[in-house]
Specification:
Blueprint lengths: L3 E8 L29 E6 L4 E4 L5 H7 L7 E3 L5 H4 L6 H9 L5 E6 H10 L1 H4 L17 E6 L7 E5 L2 E10 L2 E7 L3 E4 L7 H9 L4 E5 L12 H11 L3 E5 L7 H11 L6 E4 L5 E3 L1
Parallel strand pairs: 3-4, 4-5, 5-6, 10-11, 11-12, 12-13
Antiparallel strand pairs: 1-2, 1-14, 2-3, 7-8, 8-9, 9-10
The structure holds zinc ion (ZN) (2 copies).
One zinc ion binds next to loops.
């Protein structure tokens, strides 16, 4: 059975990254390397060495260099926000390598709503009539085949990607929805301000080895989970391990570690704040 072997944290920060441009707060000025966070993205490597990239962050180019990413088998985009999509053009060289090797066009999976957003935002990639259908000259475009997933509210949809069974589901994220997912041992709860109770129930049943969960800041906000809400969901879902991500400059790594100590007992889930460039073995 295909399983996830490793999860590489390419970035664990919110949309601005940390430090934030023009900000001189204690976290943005922190000398603790764990407080430097690129925009959120992960790389899944399966037990048969297939590579699945989750989101194309604006930092994708440097994330590829940091981890020598030279080949991808699939891309999943969780939702259309800039911090999860605006690095899409950096896929160009990776898709060219596939065409030199005569491999099929790189598949990009996303929800149907997100596919519409991508077509609008990146019409030069996805609209064959772009520029009146004239042949593309110069540096070209990322060669991607868009694979929209039909998702229904309160339901999970299973899709096999690179042999890996992935259950996708929607979570409310501000005015829109983002696409989270779970495999047999791992779940990724991306940008959302709530997890529908039907999905919490299913996540609980999974007895997850690792849960990665959105954790923006202390104060309640209408698009993301707060630190306390993330803690509450972890306590309810009870995975073996949990990783907090998508933090903004309100939460230093050290502060989060201290809060975890206060909120979780030894026999509970082992919770840690995600750290850029770590590779987690599942
Ligand atoms: Zn985001
Ligand atoms: Zn978002």
């Amino acid at each position: 059975m295909t399983k996830i072997k490793t999860v590489t944290i390419l970035g664990s920060g919110t949309s601005t990254g940390i430090p934030m441009v023009g900000c001189y707060c204690a976290v943005c000025l922190s000398t603790d390397p764990r407080d430097r966070r690129l925009r959120s993205s992960i790389l899944l490597t399966t037990n048969d060495n297939k590579k699945i990239l989750i989101d194309t962050s604006p930092d994708l180019r440097q994330q590829c260099f940091a981890h020598k990413i030279e080949h991808l088998d699939a891309v999943i985009i969780t939702h259309g926000h800039a911090d999860h999509t605006h690095g899409i053009d950096e896929l160009r060289p990776l898709t060219y390598i596939r065409s030199f090797k005569k491999l099929p066009i790189l598949p990009l999976f996303c929800s149907k709503i997100c596919a519409g957003i991508l077509k609008q935002k990146f019409s030069y990639i996805f609209d064959s009539n772009y520029n009146n259908g004239l042949k593309i000259l110069g540096g070209g475009i990322p060669l991607l085949s868009l694979c929209p997933i039909k998702l229904e509210k309160r339901k999970w949809t299973e899709v096999k990607i690179c042999g890996l069974k992935i259950n996708f589901f929607l979570c409310p994220h501000g005015h829109g929805q983002s696409m989270s997912f779970a495999t047999s041992n791992f779940a990724y709860i991306v940008d959302c301000h709530q997890i529908p109770s039907s999905s919490v129930k299913l996540l609980k049943k999974k007895k997850l080895k690792m849960l990665m969960i959105d954790c923006l800041q202390k104060k309640v906000q209408n698009t993301h989970l707060t630190m306390q809400q993330s803690f509450d969901y972890i306590k309810e879902i009870r995975p073996k391990n949990a990783l907090l991500f998508h933090m903004n400059h309100d939460l230093s790594h050290q502060f989060l570690e201290d809060q975890i100590k206060k909120n979780f007992k030894k026999r509970d889930t082992k919770v840690v704040p995600a750290e850029d460039n770590t590779i987690i073995k599942l």
